[in-house]
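Box 3.1. Reading complex inputs
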Amino acid sequence: MSEQQYDLIIVGAGPGGYIAAERAGSLGRKVLLVEKDKLGGVCLNRGCIPTKTLLHASKLYAHAKEGARFGVSADNVRFDLGAAMEHKRKTVETLRRGIASQMKRFGVTVIEGEARLIGSSEGNRVQVGNQTYAARNLIIATGSSPAMPPIPGLQEGVARGQVLTSTELLEISELPKRLVIVGGGYIGMEFASFFGTLGTEVTVVEMMDEIVPIMDREFAAILRKAVKGVKYELGARVERIDGTVVNFSRGPEQGRAEGDLVLVSVGRRPNVDGIGLAEAGLDIDRSGIRVNEYLQTNLPGVYAIGDVTGKSLLAHSASRMGEVAVRHMFQESYRGEKPPSVGNPRAAGAMRYGAIPWVVFTSPEVAGCGLTEEQAAAEGRRVNVASIPMAVSGRYLAEHPGERGTCKVICAEENGALLGVHMIGSGCSELIFGASLMIESELRVQDVREIVFPHPTVSEVLRDAIWEVE
Amino acid sequence: MATEVLMPRQGQSVESCLILAWKKNVGESVAKGDAICEVETDKATFEVEAGAAGVLLARLFKEGDDVPVLTPIAYIGQPGEKVPSGAGAAGSSLPNPTASEAVAPPSSKPRGEPAASASRAAAGEIAEPEQRPATSRTISPRARNLAQAKGVKVEEAHGSGPGGRIIERDIKKVLESREPMTPAAISDFLGSAEAGTPGAGTGPGGRIGTKDLNAQTPAAAAVEGQITERPVKGIRKLIAERMHASLRDTAQLTMSASADARAMLSYRKRLKGSAVETLAAVTINDLVLFAVARTLARHPEMNAHMAADMIREFRAVHLGFAVDTPRGLIVPVIRDAHLMTLTQLSAEAKLLSQACLAGNVGPDDLAGATFTVSNLGNLGVESFTPVLNPPQVAILGVCAIQPKPVMNGEEVQFVPSIGLSITIDHRAVDGAPGARFLQDLAAAIRDIDLTLAL
C-alpha cells in the first residue's frame, strides 16, 4: 500500500471544499479533493441549485397565468413537472462539469470514494479505499444532512416513501395534491412556495410561533401572507405521524394536517460520523466540529469549513471559510499581496460572520444581511430604523404590481454605521450583496448617501431607505 | 518705495495659508518671479513669488504661521530702505500679530540668528518676535482635513513642519504605519478620547473596524478549542502567593558553579552494593544534603532568616528539601540535619518524602526550615534560578551530573560534575559570601569522603 503526498487534502467537494481546492490549486499547491458522491455537494446536487431551478419554473408559471394585467394573455397554461425536472437535471450537470473543469484547470486531483481520517501523529493521513494519502494540511468539508427528529411514526413513513426530506422531494415525478411540511424554516418555505404556486394545498407545521427564525418578524408575517396556497399551523408541536397525517398539539389543543406527502425540514445535522473524526481526537460538539476564527480545529494542520462546523449553514459561508482556511495554511503565499500589518499578525484574514447575506427564494423573495431590529435590541444597541415600501422604486412597481415589498435598514445611533438591511420583495436576492458590502465596510449613512445607484432599478430602494434614516 | 509681498488668494474658499519655509533671507537680493517662501493651504502647497526685484527688506511672519490671504508677509526694496511704518500696525491686526522679523541695514543679520538681537530692536517699526508656546499643538488645515477624513488623532502625529507644526506628510506617515479604517471606525476613533490606535484590523483586507477599537486583549478573548479549567486553590494557591511574594519582596541573586562528583559517584556505587539496607538506600541527593548540612554549619550567614530590620543566623541546620507531588510542590524539613549521620539523614528524607507523596505529612514537618535544597538534577536540568522561600536568605538548586572538561597537565579530562545554583537574598547576604559558601560546598562534595569523616 503506497502513500501519496499532498500539500492539502480536502474531504468533501461542496461549495466549501471545491472553492478551497480552487484557491489552493491557484497557489500552485498539490491538492487532493475527495468526494464520496458528486462534485458540488448538497448545494449543487440536492440544494441551492435544483430548488432555484424549480422555483424559477413555478414563478414563470405564475407569471404566465397572471400576465393579463400586463397585456399578455395565455390560455391553457400547464405545468409539466417532468420538463421542469429535466431542466433541473441539465442545469446541475452543466454546473458539475464546470466544477470538474475548474479542478482540472487548477491541477486539483479529484477522487471518488469515502475518506477516512487515520491518525495525525505523523502528519495528517486519509484513507480512501485501499490507498492512503498524506498531507500537512487537511480540510474537513463534509457538510450536513437533513435532521430527522425522533417523532413516532416518522421512520415508518420514511420507509413507506410517504415522509420525505428535501433530497427525495426533489426527485418526485408527480405533483402531490396536498403536502404537509414539518418545519417552517427557509427550506420548508421555499418548498411551500414552489408547491403552493403550482396549486398544491400546502400546510406548514411550525413549532415556533413564527416561521423562518433568522428573519425580521415583521417580514416573516408578510411572507406568510404573500406565499400562495399555504396554510400555517404555528406554535404546533408534532406528536406523531400516521402515514401522511401529521398530528400536533398546541397547548391543550390537538390538531392534524393531512397530505399526500410529508416533507420533514426541521434543520440539518453536521456529517461527523463514520469517517474517523472522533477517533482522531477531533473536538466535536453538538453543532459540529469546533473551529477558531481561522477554521483550525484542535488538531494541528486540520481545518473544518462549512456546515460541518455548524457556524453558518450557507453555501457562500462555506466558500468563504474555505478561502480563509487556505489563506491561513499557506500564509507565505499571500505575503506579496499586502505589506505586513503592524500589530497583531493574527488579525488579518480571519473569518467574519457579521455581514454574510442570506436569501429565501420564495415568491416573493426575502433577503437580509447584518442585524435585525430584534437582534440589535437584544445586544442593547441604540439604533435608528427606517422602513420603506419597495413600490417607491418605479421598476419594482412596474414589474410587481400588488406585491407588498418592504426594505428596512438599521443604523447605529452613535456613529451612523449601517448594521442591518432586510428586504422582502421580488428581485431582492440580487441586490442584497450591496448591503453586505456596505455593512462589511462599516459604511455610515452619510457614506452610503454619496453612492450613485442605477435608475430605474429595484436597488434604489436601498438608497431611498438610507435617506429615510434620521 | 518698498514693495509689499502679499499672501496670495488661492481660490475662493481659502482664507489663510501656512508659511512652510522661507526661501529668501532678509538682505538677500531677489529677482522678480523668485520664490520667496513656500506656503500650504488645506488643498495644496505652492510658492509665493517676488512681484518686484530688489532686496528682501523684511519678513513679517515666521515659518509655521497661519496668515490670512491678502496680508503683507514681506517687503522688497532697495538696500537700506525702510519698510513702511504701517507694516507693524497691519501685523497687529492679525491673529498672529507679533511674529515677525526685519532689519534695517541689509546683511547685518546672519542667517538663522536668534530672534532678539540689538540690531533688530533698533529697526523699531516691527515688534519683537514672540515665542510660540511650546505646548500648543498646531496643525495645518490641509493636515487637519486629512486627519479627520482618515481617522488620525492630532496627538498620534509627530510634527515635522516649521516649529513642530503638523503638516500633511506627518499625517500620511501615521497612515502608512497602519491599515486603513472603515468610515464607522473613523467616527468612533475620533469621537472617543480613550480609543488607542490599533495597528491592524480584522475587517476586509485587514481594515480597522469598530470592533478592533474596543478589542479585548487577545489572550483573554481569543483562545478557542478544548480548555481544561483548574481552580487556583489549596497548595496551588499557597505556592502562587508565596512565590510571587518572594520575587516581589526580596532581592534575589543566583550564582552557579559545579563540583567534581567522582568521589560522590564512586561512594554511592559502593553504598548501593552494600547488603545493609539503610546504606544501599542512600541517594545522591542524600549525599548532597549531607554536604550542605555540614557546610552550612560553617556559614551561619547563609543559614539565616531575614526579618524587617533583623537578620537571624541559626546554629542549628533545619534543612528543607523540595518534593514534587501530584498536588504540587511540598517542602518538608529535616530538623537538626547538621547533627545527623548520613544514614540517619537519608532515612529521615525518605520518610518525609513518602509522607508528602501520600499526602499525610504533618504541618510541623513543613515549618521552620533555615535553608532549602531543591533538586532538579534527575530531570536533566543543567542550571536554574531557585526561588527563595522567605524569610530564608538562601536556597540551593542541585542540577544534573555532567561530564565537564578539566585540564590535567597538557591533557583535557572529562570529569563528571554536579551543577549547583545558589540563590541568595542580596538584602541579607552579599555575593562574595554566597560564592564562598558555594565554593566550600563544592569542596565538601568533591571530598565527600573527608566530609563524612568530620
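In summary: Chain A touches chain B through 30 residues (CB under 8 Å).
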